Each structure stands twice: as structure tokens, then as C-alpha cells.
Amino acid sequence: MRSPLERTPQHGAFDAVERLRRAESRLARRRQTSCGPSETDRSAMRFALERADEGVDVTPTDLARFLDISTASVTALLDRLRGGGVVELREHPSDRRKKVVRPVDRSDDPDVIDPLTASIRELSEQLGDRDAQLVRAFLDQVSDIVTQECER
């Protein structure tokens, strides 16, 4: 039996998730007080840029689903991004009722807009296949718990 002072690997995993939550909270507060795009705006820009690179059209509804926000919130977000000259809305090529979100400047690098995501991607590429699967499964479960808490 372990003494109360001995930490198990499971305690270490829990502590790491708690440190991550605190770090993300600090980052969110800092980004709220600094000028520049919000976290949601950054995620939307990255999504639009990456899909454009893949040749995939992005609609406002796609953005709402990806960001898990309402279509009204997407309208406000797109107004900000259009006002900043980052994206434009065009008619959908096959459905005139829909709009397509397109980046204005395709030379924008998503990793420059969101360097944190780029750094995390680089770190994840260092994981072996098995470790990556374990980390993904664990973080998916943590994400599910957080999502359930938000829906209460």
C-alpha cells in the first residue's frame, strides 16, 4: 500500500490535466485582454485556411458545427473577420442559397495565425503510434467530461 505522500502515475496524469486547464484559462484571459483575434476567431481562420488548402468549401454552417457555436454567433464572427479583411463571403458554386467562406489572402499561414496549435502539432508528431492512441483516447474522454459539464 502506498503512503499518502507517494504519487501514482494516475495522480500524475490528473495533475497534468489540471495544469493544462489552468494554463488554458490563463491563456484565454490574456487573449481576452489583448488586442487581436479571439480564440474562436483564430480557430475559424485556421479552419477556413486549412479547408481552402484542401480544396473544400466552407459554409457558415460548417463553421458553426466546427466551433460548436450558434449560427447567430457565426454571423457576428464572420462580420468581424470580413471587417478585418481576413475572409470574404461568396455564392456557393452549386447552391445559390448558401454562402462560402473564403480566405482573402491564401498566403496567410495558419501556423502564423495560430502558432500554439502548430507547436502542439509538432509535439504530437514526436509520439509513437501507441502513445498517440493512448493520449488521444484519454484526452477524448476528458473532453467528453468537460462537454457534459458545459451542457448541464
CATH topology of the largest domain: Arc Repressor Mutant, subunit A
Poorly predicted regions: none
Helix content estimate: 55-70%
State the CATH architecture of the largest domain. Orthogonal Bundle
| Alpha-carbon Rg, integer | 19 Å
Structural category? mainly alpha
Number of domains: 2
- Which strand order do you get reading across the main beta sheet? 1-2
CATH superfamily of the largest domain, called what?
Winged helix-like DNA-binding domain superfamily/Winged helix DNA-binding domain
Strand content: 5-15%
Mean pLDDT across all residues, rounded?
A: 85
The total strand number stands at 2
Just give the CATH class of the largest domain: Mainly Alpha
Q: Provide the succession of SSEs.
A: HHHHEEHHH
How many individual helices?
Answer: 7
Keywords:
mainly alpha, Arc Repressor Mutant, subunit A, two-stranded antiparallel sheet
Give the arrangement of secondary structure elements.
Layout lengths: L8 H25 L5 H15 L6 H8 L3 H13 L3 E5 L7 E5 L6 H4 L1 H10 L4 H22 L2
Antiparallel strand pairs: 1-2
Helix pairs in contact: 3-4
